[in-house]
Structures are given as structure tokens and as C-alpha cells.
Amino acid sequence: MAFGFACGGEGGSTAAPGSSGDSPTEAYKRLYAAVKKKDTEAIKAQMTAKSQDFAKMASEKNNKPIEEVFANGFTATTFAEKLPEIRDQRLSENMGSVEVYNSKDSRWEDLPFINENGGWKLAVGELFAGSFKSPGKGRDALEKEAANAISGGPVAGIPTGPNTTVTNVPMNANVIIPKAATNASNAAADAKKK
Question: Which residue range forms the structural domain that includes residue 60?
Fold first, then answer.
């Protein structure tokens, strides 16, 4: 499974609340190392509880071993042979994001993290549950908006049309999950609307 997206909002502080030296950047480095070692337990340790639940659901729905679901840590950036470039860490309270370069697709992924139980962890489950609140737009999204504004093109994140409401929704979402899990996510989203 590969996972990549960019989040919306304004940038926040870069100091990790309530942790001694830990940060989303350090959490990503631990995740990358665990993926390279193919250590499923170490990968799980870098995920929030909701992300682990999401992986379990995907495993059951697709009848795949949990090790296969966790294999790349939910991000295509871990396919890189060497630790990829990491930039633009943003924090707001217990939520954070960091951009990691995806060399496979030649683009930046804006990865979500939550400070859970005193440490930063990848928050894929919260993203899918709609409980992740972005700490601000990433550098990649801001650069694309600026380029569009200069060229006279559309500016991402600016609502258009009557009665348009923009909420804290990931921008430039590129999520690859098993088909059954996609259907389950759509069903859950439809149920929430009712």
C-alpha cells in the first residue's frame, strides 16, 4: 500500500510539545529504518492506534497478512534505497506534518503525525477517520499555489461557487489502498453523512 497526500491550513510551530527531542521528522526516520529492516513490530510501533486498527481492517477485508499491509509503512517514500529528503515540519498542538520526497513518483508527500503516548507516530488512521487536523499547508502545496497564481491558473484551497464550504480536507490526495478497504471507507463516509 502506498500513501501520499498534502494537507491544508496555515503553518505552525516546529517544537514538539511534551517530548524531549522527538519530532515527526525523527518518527519518519524510525519508520523508514523499520521498513528497511522488514520489522513489522517496529513499523507498527511508529503508527498510532487508529492507524494500526486501519491496517487490521485492510488486512481482514483483503484477506492479506498484516505484515503485507504494513510492509511499506503506508508511504511510497520508503521505496527509496537511502533515507529520502525530509523538509517542512509543521506542528500544531499534538498534530504535525512533514514533507518527504517520493523519488518513485518524483513528488513530495505530506505525511501526518500525532503525538500519542509521548511520541510522534504516523497518523494514517486519523486521516481516514477525519480526525486529523492539519498543522498547515506544506511547502509543496504553497509553491504550487504560488505558481498557479503567477500563471493565472486556479489557486488550490480557494472556494469557488455559491455556498461553497472548505473544511480541513487533504489536498492533492493520492492514496493507494486495497479495493475492499476503499469500498469500506466509502461506506463509512456515506454512513457518517446520514
Answer: 2-158+165-184
